[in-house]
Input
Amino acid sequence: MSLEHFISEAISPWMKEEGPDSDIVLSSRIRLARNLENYNFPDFASKEESETVIRKVHEANGDQEYGNCGKFEILSLDQLKPLAKRVLVEKHLISPHLAEQSKYGAVMLNEDESVSIMINEEDHLRIQCLFAGFQLKEALKLAGELDDWLEEKVDYAFDEERGYLTSCPTNVGTGLRASVMMHLPALVITKQMSRIIPAINQLGLVVRGIYGEGTEAQGNVFQISNQITLGKSEEDIVEDLRGVVLQLIQQERAARNNLQQGLKIQLEDRIFRSYGVLANSRIIQSKEAAQCLSDVRLGIDLGVIQGISRSILNELMILTQPGFLQQYANEMLGPDERDILRATLIRERVELEEA
Amino acid sequence: MFCQECHERPATLHFTKIVNGQKTEFHICEHCAKEKGEFLPGSNTFSIHQLLSGLLYGDPAISGTASPGLSQQSVLACPKCGMTYQQFAKIGRFGCRHCYEVFDSRLDPILKRVHGGNTKHEGKIPKRIGSGLQEKRELENLKKSMQQYILNEEFEKAAETRDKIRLLEKQKHQEKGE
Ligand SMILES: [Zn+2]
Ligand SMILES: [Zn+2]
Output
């Protein structure tokens, strides 16, 4: 498989678009949790119940078109190889829970993979809309429409007092999780994140690294999402998150300006060294790769590096994860082999840009 | 207790996984938990439920272990899915929509803590099955604003609102009559 072909398979079409504020906000996501009225929640349902849920949703909306989303295709998880499942997780199209734990899981995907509807995850339905850049409102609108479309045919578990009923009490009410993925290198370099994260937490929002473990965010990519789903309208939840994201964008831009003014040569040195590592290394671990990718992406955003597409960070953060590397190699790989292949793939990708 | 994965470090994470009613218990150390979680990125299946079940357990009023007066709860169970309140408190998950009704009297404190003091849904109402509710909410809102107009002595607006309320109520009766 050629690298170009592999990338075009691996990167969802929606990711190739440039959304608003995409120098800082990589993507926006809305997820709605819904359950059907008459069946136990997936982890407590019988085989028959779970199969009925899939059948009902499939009969009602599977293999159909919806608006601009195009046609939906339904995939049964038990028919996918472990590696294929992992690749879907790395593309954020299905959750680790659906891949690993659900026995009768399925997923409905549209053509450009901007919509994924997971079936029999922790809840019967998880409607997820992904948009490039900062487009939370747009994502909420589409998710709401898809929700109405599904509700035409299936009866939801809804209660006047408690709202949409979910398996976990943390999702009840709106069932809404709104999140954005942000690249915040300047706030990390200037050591402001440790001050900012607790402040954001106090507002009822959660900040975590998408890649890497715990509080450490590999590649300086952070996910910010709402925690409260009950007692606020969908619009208010999204508005509260948007307000914080707007402030973060401003602070990141200000920090980038300060760096460029006060530490121009040091910053450029760091960016070009990282570029050198990506373009030349023969063995690279995911942590180092992520850091260098973040530096190079910052260099592109600041105009220090020219002639390389911005999407390189998003693309290579996904492509260099273990599942994709193994799919590219078409075999299972040990950690050492992965580090070698990761370096090769990044070098080839950078050469593709220079060609 | 030692970690069941490496048998070297003490187990600091304890959790129960329930799939289709089948319980599996895990006792592992932080190190091995990370390794297990590493197979899939962003795997947060441990943390949130562990956190939540800790939350439910930590509250004597909810877990009931500290107050013998609440011993009745051992029989509080959902007739549809069979989930008992104790199971719910342990795993922090409902088994079906009826669990919400069965455990209703105990939910407010839990929901308040998870959702910043909130217990009542203020968001979307499903279009089809919730159409009656939508009208009901609209009526409630109109009545509230009428009261406000009266308080402010804006009687003209109050009268307009009253007419809207009458119209809506009339429509509602006609629909029922059919
Ligand atoms: Zn261990
Ligand atoms: Zn139940």
Notes: Residues 37-51, 57-74 of chain B have pLDDT under 50 and may be disordered. Residues 49-60+75-115 of chain B form one domain. Chain B touches chain A through 49 residues (CB under 8 Å). The radius of gyration of chain B is 25 Å.
